[in-house]
Amino acid sequence: MKLLAALFLLVQTSQAFATDLVFDLDWTLIYSTRAASAESNPEGIVRYQDEIYRFSDEAAKVILTLHRTPGMRISFFSGGDHARNEFVIEKLYEEINRLNGTPNQTLKPFRVGSADDLRVLSSDPLKRFSERHKKPLRRLIPDIDLTDAILIDDSDFADAGEEKNLLRILDTLDDIPDFSSNEWKTAGLQELPKNRTDWSLERQKLVWVLGVVTEAKRLTQNTGVTFTEAVNQMTRNSLDAPITRDLPSYKAQVEKGLKALNPRCDDRLK
Predict the structure, then answer these.
(1) Number of Cα atoms under 13 Å in the Cβ half of residue 113
(2) Tell me, what CATH number does 103's domain have?
(3) Fewest CB within 10 A of the end CB: N or C in the chain?
(4) What is this structure's pTM?
(5) Does any domain span residue 190?
(6) C-alpha span between 78 and 118 (Å, rounded)
(7) What are the DSSP calls for 153-221, one per residue?
(8) What's the domain range around 187?
């Protein structure tokens, strides 16, 4: 009984001091894509009903790396319906657990939030979806510590009082898995890269997130600032706006993410 009590206390303690990372799905972890693109480049494709999605580059590897980082709780929060979100996340974790290669350990998300968990602010159809709805982290994870948590999202879904918990991914592009391909150039896409470097950095947005999280944890341990404060220091400018990916500081975090993804890898931005 004493052993069971000790283990229970250990679990409670580990949860109480967990760093919560909450990932959006659409345009953060997945792209909506085209049948022609899926056929010409099937890597990372998942189909749900009539929709075709592609996982963002290194999605499974980044989430697996975060799972392997002590003290991390990984959750997801998307405005999509629950069945769709669960299906997409199930497919993602099939790849994560395959990469993990540990049969007696099945990694799972901590929480999954969907449309029913959103806070509805308005029904005005003229407003953007992110203006009419917010993603309350305290509703998704009641025991969350907002000084030790971030929402990774391409839109401003931060709830009131949680604005500092938003790690914003700016200027996401349409799905272009291969910059050298002609398929995307004639597909009538709207969100296009400025050049190859811009395309490469956008495709590595999750690697950037990994770099930010890794560096923020280091700063938290070495300087005493909170995790949320450290993330904000690295990812917001003097006007408190999210940094853009053309800045050297953004590229530096991508480099850190690449090293965290594979410490022995000498890859550099192309």
Answers:
(1) 24
(2) 3.40.50.1000
(3) N
(4) 0.90
(5) yes
(6) 9
(7) ESS--BPTT-GGGEEE--S-----S-TT-STGGGTT-SS--SSHHHHHHHHTHHHHHHHHHHHHHHHHH
(8) 17-261
3 inside domain: no
β-bridge partners, 48: 51
Number of domain units in the chain: 1
Specify if 2 maps to a domain: no
The set of residues, in sequence order, having a beta carbon less than 8 Å from that of 91 and lying 6+ positions away, is 46
Q: Among 171, 153, 164, 160, which Cα is nearest to 134's?
A: 160
CA angle 237, 243, 249 (to 5 degrees): 90
pLDDT tens digits, one per residue of 174-213: 999 999 998 999 899 999 999 999 999 999 999 999 999 9
* Maximum distance among all Cα pairs of the chain, rounded to whole angstroms: 67
CA gyration radius for the chain?
Answer: 19
Burial of residue 266 (CB within 10 Å: 0-12, 13-18, 19+) is exposed
